[in-house]
Amino acid sequence: MPIIQLRSVKKDYFLGKVIVPAVKGISFSIERGDFVSIAGPSGSGKSTILNMIGLIDTPTSGEVIIDGKNTKGLSDQELTRFRHEVLGFIFQSFNLIPVLNVWENIEFPLLLGKTRVPKNEWKSWIDFLIGEVGLGDWRAHKPNELSGGQRQRVAIARALVTKPSIVLADEPTANLDSATGEQIIDLMKKINREIQTTFIFSTHDAKIVNIADHIIRLRDGTIIENRRNGEDVAEEGAVDTPVED
Amino acid sequence: MNTVLPRIAARNLLRQKKRTILLAGAIAFGIMIVTLINGFAGSFIQNVSENFAYLLGGHVFVSGSEYTASGRRISVIRDDSVIMQALSSSGQRWASLQKTSETTATLIFEGKSIRQNLTGIDLAHSTMLKERLALINGSWDNLAWPNAIIVSQSVAKKLNVLPGDTIVAQFQTVTGQNNVGEFRLAAVTVDSTSFIGSIMTYVQLDYLNSLIGLGKGEYMSLGIMLDKLDRSEAFATSLYTSMKGMGLKLFDRSTRESDGSMTPFQAMIQKQNSETWTGTKYRVYTVDDVLAQAKQIVVALDTGSVAILIVLFAIVMIGISNSFRMAMYERIREIGTMRAVGVQRGEIRSMFLYEALFLALAGAVVGIILALIVMAILSLITFDPQSPVFLILKRGHLSFYLPPLRALGNIAIIAVLTLVAVYAPANAAAKMPPAEALRTVK
Ligand SMILES: Nc1ncnc2c1ncn2[C@@H]1O[C@H](COP(=O)(O)OP(=O)(O)O)[C@@H](O)[C@H]1O
Ligand SMILES: [Mg+2]
Questions:
Q1: Which residues contact B141 (CB under 8 A, 6 or more apart)?
Q2: Is residue A46 within 8 Å of residue A202, measured between CB atoms?
Q3: Among A78, B158, B307, B380, whose CB has the most other CB atoms within 10 angstroms?
Q4: CA distance between the termini of chain A
Q5: Residues from chain A contacting residue B333 (CB–CB below 8 Å)
Q6: Which residue's alpha carbon is at the smallest distance from atom 11 of ligand 1?
Q7: A99: nearest CB among B15, B435, B439
């Protein structure tokens, strides 16, 4: 069973009386353990889709099914708990908590309630993650003492600390130079292979799209390409034929 | 309960040092003012009462009244054995007793004169005198003289007398006859030691009695010093009951309601003046009865301090509310991030409320410490014993007493007000949809 299913998902934004159709009724599935790229130019609806998968926004219509659970109609509290248990987030501008140091930033989600990591394993697990992202010497530093690449590494460790099923990364490389951005994507890919976490990242950078196992390409709120392991995915609702970028 | 949110709240305070110092400083200033008023009010009534107690020679008093054959009302206790009995059977403890007679006299020496109230007590056995007064001239040994008189420095200066000199006194007896007596100056007291020293003139009780027409063993009023001021009301009530039980005639102690134009004590006296009786009728009263007005001042001060607290803090709270609203916008992406990562709405609100609470507590504690420092400094000032503020002072110095509950109450008020002020922005932060918070770029 796919870990994520979107069924006829539509999202309209309301700007006063103007309706902005950001996502125009799309459907797709994502398989467990995949490294997924949501690609497309700015304004194509990438963030909107990731927000709905990430349960920080709700569709205007359609269904988002995560880990077999239909998330429609859940309360804010239930959505928050679900996010905490199942999802990890990486942001374009890193979004670390400025008053916490590297170690504390990574630890933070563990302190928010029940997780899959038993308490007696926290310390060794955080130490392991700090090693994975190569920040062993920086654990006591505050975010403002780190470079952009280092901050994003902290964010990756933070996203993984609760052992989520899915990590969502909305343009994680957009605020980094291209070499650093590639390192970050490589790191995510490495972790994806090592611990089988499903990664979904969005980007408008064609160069890094191809590292993904599964590429979903968007334009104007619709899917224009859906390829997994080099093959087109035939799926209901994915009506558009591929168009050259 | 996890401690990470209060920890973040505390660090957020430190992160915006300028803002924190400004707001906490405003709270501290307000709390300082209010604490000073409370501290002053707290000791005010105590000082006034204590000073009066020493001035009058007791915390609780018994005085007797009778009519002479000519219908003149005089103040006298002829036989105090029943009172003594009532005292011991009342079951209360006291520190000392002082029998007092009084008259107003004109003191004359070599053509100079001054009008003084003469207080007749047992000079040789009064511990109060030796405790409270310091002599500049003369000696405690001279108090054995049967016609000894003790005057203050300023009186001695005015009359230009020295110890050993004989002073003539003109006065009236209790029955209204003019009389003259001779006193020998035994000692001169230092004015600055206390207010009492500067206005009181002491003479021998027995000698004064013989001059004003009272017999040996008689006197006008009995002053009872207690070891604690706050026991005076209870003491007076039980003494009153005890005396009543012995069959003595007593003025009603409950007739103390004020009609507004007089103090309760004046009302009581006036009511008593309109009565007639035969034999001796006794009155039991306390220093507090005399000082009911002073008590009203304390109530006014305390009420005023609460009003100041509220007005001052209404202003401070507007500032706090606004700056938390700003903080909320400044940290909007952090809030969105926390929500995404799994922080619940209510926890976001709590985080802001913690921050406000810490701010309020820090400000309040600093304010109280500042107030204590100011109190300590003000207590060092020595006041002129002649000045009318002297009665509110403790041995010539301002003194403060801050009831701990009052201090805690002020802290609680400020904490609650701060939480109320911050609630709206905290709630707005909590209600912010995470997607929107994360989209915001600043
Ligand atoms: N909160 C919003 N209010 C109004 N319009 C929005 C809002 N968020 C996104 N949009 C619009 O929806 C479309 C898709 O935006 P978005 O998902 O952010 O695209 P991308 O992440 O691919 O750049 C854009 O036209 C954008 O202007
Ligand atoms: Mg975007």
A1: none
A2: yes
A3: B158
A4: 31
A5: 93, 95
A6: A22
A7: B15
Rounded distance between C-alpha atoms, residue A118 and residue A83, angstroms: 18
Q: Which residue has the higher pLDDT, B96 or A170?
A: A170
Q: Are A7 and A65 within 8 A, CB to CB?
A: yes
Give the pLDDT band of residue A110 (cuts 50, 70, 90). very high
- For the entire predicted model, the pTM comes to 0.75
Using CB distances shorter than 6 Å, the residues near ligand 1 are: A 13, 15, 20, 22, 40, 42-48; B 439
A interface test, pick of B2, B7, B339, B341 with most A CB neighbours within 10 Å: B341
- In this complex, the residue of A81, A93, A111 whose CB is nearest that of residue B4 is A111
Whole-angstrom CA distances from A94 to A105, A143, B294 are 11, 9, 66
Whether residue B297 contacts residue B409, with contact meaning beta carbons closer than 8 Å, is answered with no
Q: B28-77: per-residue pLDDT in tens? A: 999 999 899 888 887 877 777 777 777 778 889 999 988 888 888 888 99
If one residue of A48, A58, A217 were mutated to test the ligand 1 pocket, choosing by the most ligand atoms within 8 A of its CB, it would be: A48
Min distance B341 CA to chain A CA atoms (Å): 6
A6, containing H or E segment: strand A4-15
How much is the pLDDT for B228?
Answer: 76
CA A92 to chain centre: 10
Do the Cβ atoms of A88 and A162 come closer than 8 Å? Answer: yes
Q: Which atom of ligand 1 is nearest to the CA of B436?
A: 1
Decide if B333 touches A, using CB distance below 8 A. Answer: yes
Average model confidence (pLDDT) across chain B: 85
Task: Determine the Cα–Cα distance for residues B87 and B282; give it in Å rounded to an integer.
Answer: 14
At B198 the pLDDT is 62
Q: Could you tell me the domains of chain B?
A: 4-52+294-439 (no CATH), 108-115+123-223 (2.40.40)
